Amino acid sequence: MGTAETGLSPVPAGPRPALTVRGVRKTYPGAGAPALDGVDLTLHNGETLAVLGPSGSGKSTLLRAIAGLEPLDGGTIEFGNHDERLAVVFQAPGLFPWLSVRQNIALGGKYRRNRDRFDESRVEELLEILGLTPWANTPVQELSGGQAQRVSVGRALAVRPDVLLLDEPFSALDPATRGDLQLWLRDLATELDLTIFLVTHDVEEALTLGDRIGFFAGPRGFSQQWIPARDGTTAEQILAHYRGTDSGSGNWII
What we know:
Blueprint: E1 19-26, E2 36-43, E3 48-52, H1 59-66, E4 74-79, E5 86-89, H2 101-110, H3 120-129, H4 145-157, E6 163-167, H5 175-192, E7 196-200, H6 203-209, E8 212-218, E9 221-226, H7 228-231, H8 235-243
Parallel strand pairs: 3-7, 3-8, 5-6, 6-7
Antiparallel strand pairs: 1-2, 1-4, 8-9
């Protein structure tokens, strides 16, 4: 494992990063301490960065800042594509329950600032890719939780985002469904060459999906990073680092 640092160091030089965050600061009115205090990171094209950390560490604040949903007090957020095609998937699907699966996915493209990137054929393509064609005309209120979250991902992908932001997207689902969707998303990311910024407190989810894992330790940002596919990092090792101990635990949610 690498040495402690406040930011995620870049991977070896290559094309312009999809996302670069430098010195980002955010303090909420009335708060006694900053939520973000000089956070740095680099996300490269085709990479999934899994940001791991306990509740209240500021990782979701960072995601919301990247999405433009939180005004910054300082620092910069830059995108490799200046068109800045972003899409966000939250824990709750946020779908229109009375509309069909097809209609909900189409809304992702029709009413976005960059809707010029969207065409109707994209909906049919996504229905096929996401395995939702049999439910295309089904109102989403009749779907299971796992199916509804697939629709939410499809809606986000309708405009071909340069960066897909995922904030605990599967945490409300039962363990079996959550595990199935993690594997599904990993395969989807490979198939579509997605660039993903994932926030999670589930160690196994980070290991399953992340090309890199950053441990978000608090306002100053990242205290550690791992490349699980290359260094064989285990959930026990990550938990040991988090707890400051030499041994892991069977509880892999932090």
